[in-house]
Amino acid sequence: MIYFPYFRGRQYDLQALKAIAQQQILPANIIPIIEPVRDIRGLPQTVAAFVDNNQPVAIIANPTVSDYALTQQKLYDWQAYRDNPRLIVGHILTPTLIPDVLTAPTGHQTLLVARQYDELKAAQQAGWLTAPDYLLVPPEARIRRLIKRPTVRLFDHAWLPEHGRSYADITDGFFSDDWSLAKLYGDVGFSDYTIGGSFYSEHGYPARAVTLHLTYFRGDQLRIHRFVSTDRADFKHPKEKFFQAVAQLADWLPQQPLATQTPAAKQLAAYHTQQHFPGLGVVKRLSLEHHLQVVAAYFKTNFPEKK
After folding, report:
1. For residue 306, is it within any domain?
2. pLDDT digits (tens, 9 = 90+) for 1-46
3. pTM of the full predicted structure?
4. What residue numbers bound the domain in which 180 lies?
5. Per the structure, how many domains does the chain have?
6. Each residue of 202-229: pLDDT tens digit?
7. Where are any strands of DSSP class E within the chain?
8. Residue 307 located in a structural domain
């Protein structure tokens, strides 16, 4: 069983991944995927952290959610690590994709992300889909009927509140048991956009509340708990709203099993004691670190690496 957590290459995503790589806690069957969105120093630094610590990581060579791919001269390029076998070069299936890139050199692996049914059907008819080592597809019944090779289902579990609702309406709920579906359908693994979701905005968007998201296991079910500031009247005072939310986290965390009390979660709770506001970017980084720490511990127990 392989887990491919999918990240857009925002600064805090890369910071979380770099920290996790340096902690050396991920088993080899958890392989983060990075889709670059900005030409920033953290991108090659993060890739280097994985390959230097002998941990696999995948990077999308033709990102589609930002203008990164249109930048001809990269200041901070990851290509210097392309020859390292721990780096899996991935591509997104688009009408302009050249099929030759799906065949990896000896000792390397490739990955293909196919999000559109029509493009996937055309690629299958052209005989392209046997080349990549890993094929990521949406969890749709029509795609399951179309594709005959083992795949990886790419899920989006993040819930964005609709108009008139907020995270305060659902503070705790189910997040994922995708590994169960993977076993049921004979998939080689599963993938998701972690707690960030697939939606990408270049500049983010304002929120009336500050919400902290922590995943945790209850038995074999991955759940998510949301700690929401009580002040949701306007878009002001993020510092005060953070203290409202983190106070709830600090009360909740000591009551949880030790597996939930990760180093990242403890660091978040410590900000309540210290009455320190580190900035929302750091909060997002620690929330992502916590998610990977929690899932890594579960995998080591339930899906140990084959020797």
Report:
1. no
2. 999 999 999 999 999 999 999 999 999 999 999 999 999 999 999 9
3. 0.94
4. 2-301
5. 1
6. 766 678 889 999 999 999 999 999 999 9
7. 2-8, 33-35, 57-60, 87-92, 110-113, 134-137, 152-155, 172-176, 189-192, 211-218, 221-228
8. no
